[in-house]
Design a protein that fits this description.
With about 280 residues, this protein is α+β, with helices and mostly antiparallel strands. It is about 25% helix and about 20% strand. It folds into two domains: about 140 residues, N-terminal domain of MutM-like DNA repair proteins; about 130 residues, Helicase, Ruva Protein, domain 3 (Orthogonal Bundle), CATH 1.10.8.50. Helix 1 crosses helix 7, helix 4 packs across helix 7 and helix 6 crosses helix 7. The longest helix is centred in the C-terminal third of the chain and has 20 residues. About 35% of the residues are buried.
Length: about 280
Amino acid sequence: MPELPEVETVRRGLAPTLVGARIARIETRRPDLRLPFPRNFAKNLQGRRIDALNRRAKYLIAALDDGAALIAHLGMSGSFRVEGAEAPGNFAVPRSKNPAHDHVVFHLDGAKVIYNDPRRFGFMTLTKMSELAALPFFARLGVEPLSNEFNGVALARLFAGKKTPLKSALLDQSLIAGLGNIYVCEALHRADLAPDRPAAVAEKESVAERLAGAIRAVLEEAIAAGGSSLRDHRQADGSLGYFQHNFRVYDREGAPCPKPKCKGIVERRVQSGRSTFFCPKCQR
């Protein structure tokens, strides 16, 4: 599933085409994705101007000129592509275009934005912007790890007294929103912390600051690289992200630890049904 850097990459790729554009019409080529489309979905979007395109955790949020919000989640294999955009900064590079999986088409002035989703685990819905925070998708989301509110002090407070494994706590969306398996593994390695240590280890100020800094650094580097392309993720211009080439431990079982002077070997362990990659020598 796309994680925060992949969704942020898509947001930045779509924004030049979507923000300020007016939706001439919408095609919905099936009645549902993972969830049914809201009643009068296409009708309520027709003629609306998109004033902003934001992200909350792994959700895209388009703010419309009538006070409504269009919410989109990519699921496992969802992606957007732009066709017909000519202005610099717009993304119109060809990518996978199997029409059988083109489920939603946004017709704008001079461009089309097409949502393609082979597995149909994504969804779109509409709500009022003023009611956004109360939706089940958002009501229990924690702090954004790239926000000004996220730092060592906040992390220490969130993890105080928690006996759950550190990796599990980092994946808890009610604590920190948007982190996924890949970037948690990478951040823990950078912070020299074992994934199975109790989360309360981050009560210590120096540990919390180190971990918060590692999380922010790995997310920012991944966004700059266009995310990680493992199976389905591509950027809005059709190109692949390349942060997977910078993985230090994720999916590198049996490889030497890349840290200078560390002679450890990357191991894989299953935690809560997910693969955890770490170096047992330097992550303690």
